[in-house]
Design goal:
alpha/beta; Rossmann fold; 10-stranded mixed sheet; 10 strands
Length: 273
């Protein structure tokens, strides 16, 4: 199911953490990596004359620096892929980063990106602006990797019975089988009968796996907090969840729970679509 991974990098330290994760994941899945690095138009084109009579500085030096930085970022990713024995191809582009990444992701099975970007230290949000834009626009499964995330340990599947959660269950089964890791299924419901029904549905979706499936339920507290806490407790390597919950129409970024988990989790989050 996952044979091509698109890794978007800007060369930053947070992106470096996602690069290592992507290379290790590709090796374990026997997938290839397509690297992409985008020089933002708004930076490469520099300043323009704005009617004040002050000539803008030359853009040549800045454009050259940004292009060289992009090339070095892809070279670093390539070195990491080859060290893992992974087939690797790459391209450096110029334009609007989130649009180009989303476009190229159409040819991949999985998109991987760092949660934070090059300018993380100067912002107040909890997700980088480029990552935010990509998650808003892409129709592909996206794996968001925070710094410090490790690809070792079980998967935690957050299941609420929505169509996105069912897609997430399919992805979790694929990953668990290929990685040889158990799945912990998290269900949040104040209704015990509904929780039982959801676990029954998950069992029908995962089928007879060669790895163990364990069940976790919760009735108290915010679901996003409980999901992250449960993932910590089982030492999960990735949280798998649908992009949209049961009230998709009211959501803009991604589903409210998925959004909150992506923003706060110290563990990689696979947002399924």
């Amino acid at each position: 199911m996952i044979s091509t991974i698109l890794m978007a990098t800007d060369g930053s330290e947070p992106a470096g953490a996602a690069e290592r994760y992507a290379a290790s994941l590709a090796a374990r899945l026997r997938a290839r990596i397509q690297g992409i690095s985008v020089v933002e138009d708004r930076l490469a084109r520099g300043f323009t004359e704005d009617g004040l009579g002050l000539a803008p500085p030359s853009t040549e030096a800045l454009a050259g620096y940004l292009k060289s930085r992009s090339d070095l970022a892809l070279r670093r990713l390539g070195d990491r892929a080859r060290a893992e024995g992974v087939e690797y191809h790459s391209e450096a582009l110029q334009g609007i980063a989130d649009d180009l990444v989303v476009e190229r992701a159409q040819q991949a099975d999985l998109l991987v990106l760092g949660r934070d970007g090059q300018h993380a230290r100067y912002r107040t949000g909890l997700v980088g602006s480029t990552a935010d834009g990509i998650l808003r626009k892409t129709a592909k499964a996206a794996l968001v990797v925070p710094q410090g995330a490790q690809l070792s340990g079980p998967l935690l599947l957050a299941f609420d019975g929505s169509p996105g959660a069912r897609v997430g269950a399919t992805l979790a089964v694929h990953l668990a089988t290929r990685l040889g890791e158990p799945i912990h299924v998290f269900v949040d419901s104040k209704d015990k009968g509904r929780a039982v029904a959801r676990f029954d549905e998950v069992r029908s979706l995962v089928g007879a796996l060669p790895v163990s499936v364990r069940e976790i339920s919760s009735t108290l507290g915010r679901p996003d907090v409980k999901i992250v806490d449960s993932a910590r407790e089982v030492r999960a390597s990735v949280i798998v969840m649908g992009a949209f919950g049961r009230n998709r129409i009211t959501d803009y970024f991604i589903g409210s729970n998925a959004s909150a988990v992506v923003r706060s989790s110290p563990i990689a989050v696979l947002v399924a679509r």
